[in-house]
Amino acid sequence: MNAYKTVEKKWKRTKLATAEDLYGADGARIAEAADLVDVQALTLAQAAWVDQVGSCAISAGATCPIYALRKPGAVANNDSDVHAGFFILPGALDAATQRLLAEMCLTEYAEAPHTTNLHPLGQNVEGIWAKSTSRAPGQPDPMDKLHWAALGYHYDWTNRAYPDTPGSEVPALLQSIGVACAKAVGLDITSEAALVNYYKASSTMGGHQDNVEVTFAYPVVSFSIGSSAIFLKGGLTKDEAPIEILLRSGDVVVMGGTSRLCFHGIAKTLPTTNLPAFPRELPNSDALYRSIAASLSKQPARTRRGSA
After folding, report:
1. CA 196, 279, 140 angle in degrees (round to 5)?
2. Which pLDDT tens digit goes with each residue over 141-152?
3. C-alpha span between 136 and 96 (Å, rounded)
4. Any binding-site annotation on 208?
5. What pTM was computed for the model?
6. What are the extents of the domains in the chain?
7. Which residues are paired to 65 by β-bridges?
8. Fold category of 3-306 in CATH
9. Is 210 one of the annotated binding-site residues?
10. CA of 49: how far to CAs of 11, 71, 208, in Å?
C-alpha cells in the first residue's frame, strides 16, 4: 500500500461525530490527529515548516493570515519543494460571503445552463433546492443524489477531459473571489471552469491530480463552505506521504507552482458545531436562512476554480 493510501485509510477508520472531536476534553489532540496541520493550533514542530508569509483581506473587514507549506526540513522559497506554491488562507471568507456563496451553490450553480452529475441521467433536477426544502416528511431528498456541478467549461468526469467550448459562464462572484485569493499570494488566474462539490457527512474524495487542463500556469483556488474536512496535500506521486490539513468553513486553499500538479483529496468530512453566525439579511427570508444553515451543518460545498 502506498503512503498516500495509508493516510486515507487511517482517517476512514477514525470515527468522529464532529470536527470538535479531533480534540479531547483537555484540549489535547486525539492520537489520530497528531500530525494534523491546524493553522489555528500549530504544534511547535509544525511551526518550523508552516510559515505565515503575510495577510490579506478577501472579504471586506476580514483580514486573515496567509500560510505557506514547505517540506519539513526544507528551506523557505525553494521552488523545487513539492509543496511550493501551496497556500492556506484561513477564514478568508467572512460569514456574509460564506452565506452568499452557500445560497448560490444550492439555488443557482446546480441549475441550467450549468450541469451536474444528475443532468446526463435525464433526471428532473430543475429547482432541486426548492424541491428539497418543500418535500413532504418521509420523502427522499433529491439533494442526497447531487454530488457536483460544473460551471464554465463543463468537465467530463467519465473521460477526464474538458470540451472545446464552454457550456456556461463562470459566475462573476466566483471570478472575483478567485482572482482576489490568487492575487493575495502573488499569482494570477484566468478562470474558465469551476466545480462545486457537494459533500455529505460520509463523503470523501480520493487522491487525484488536476492534470487535464490545457495549461497548468494558473493555480487551483478552492473555497470551503459548511462542514470541516481533512484535506490531504500529497506529492507528485502517491509514494510520498501527504500532509494532513484541517479546513474549516470560510477557508481558502491555493495550489500553484510545483504543488499545482500534486495529489490531493478529502479524507474525511466533519460536521461542526461551530459554523459562523450567517447574517439573515442576505438577501432573502428567515426561512431560506434556516434551510441553508441546516444544510451546511451536514452537507458542505467546496468550490474549485481553475483554468481550462
Report:
1. 50
2. 888 999 999 999
3. 30
4. yes
5. 0.90
6. 3-306
7. 55
8. Jelly Rolls (2.60.120)
9. yes
10. 23, 7, 24
